[in-house]
Amino acid sequence: MPPTRSRAGVPEQLGFDGMPERLFVCTPSKLGAYVDCPRRYRYSYVDRPTPPKGPPWAHNSLGASVHTALKNWFGLPADRRDPSVLPTLLKSTWVREGYRDVDQERAAYRAALGWLETYVAGLDPEEEPLGVERVVATKTAVLALNGRADRIDSRPGPQGPEAVIVDYKTGRSGLDADDARGSLALALYAYAAQRVFRRPSYRVELHHLPTGTVAAHEHTEESLARQVRRAEDTARDIMAAEKAVSAGADPDAEFPTNPGPLCGWCDFRKICPSGSEAVAKEPWAAVSHLTPP
Length: 293
Ligand code: SF4
Known about the structure:
By secondary structure, the chain is of the alpha+beta class.
């Protein structure tokens, strides 16, 4: 039976008892927020108005600037993809928020430009990806999933062209194959890309620009299905908690805190009873290694 639609336009399907059950509309980052900390999920996605967040983070500004520069690189015609355009690309969409001072911001800009120069030197300017910052969406029995993949490449595979999921990383530490294998987001992008592009998509790659390294994993049908089940289990937990709160349960009990190393970096640290005990990180703490002593 084809899915039905609610009045709000949210896709629905029939449950076991014949009543329509709403699919859980989500992105990989929404699911990831709940896995990291149910309370942070509640502050971000449930409480309205959204509680006040802390100041912007310099590492987010740096990551966004590099991502946009790469997006705009692929937006150029192939004959204009020359490293000499990188300073203009990076400057024109540079995000300034969160840095300690202008010196630190300049050091981050220089570092980012160096990463980009090294990175594009390894790209074939003639190669057109299947998608750049491409939204892919699909449904499962539980999820109405959508997400924006940094890049989806077309590469030859044993049975014809395949879609390869590429995710850029700009954090301090490098990444390994376990990071690529365990990433729920990358697996869900691959699962969705198979359906959107109607071709195999098993390979997922983390491109770490500061070190110029690539951490890759080849999924199988089984490992993608495992990650989808994991996502569905998370979605069921979230729906159960939201339903309980709607029925009058204590929201603090349904969305418990998960205190740990993430609290120092959490946007809601100041209003969270567990987070306010954590040592605060300066907004520029994750980029301070880029500033010369
Ligand atoms: S401060 Fe820590 S416990 Fe509180 S919401 Fe953020 S991550 Fe969760």
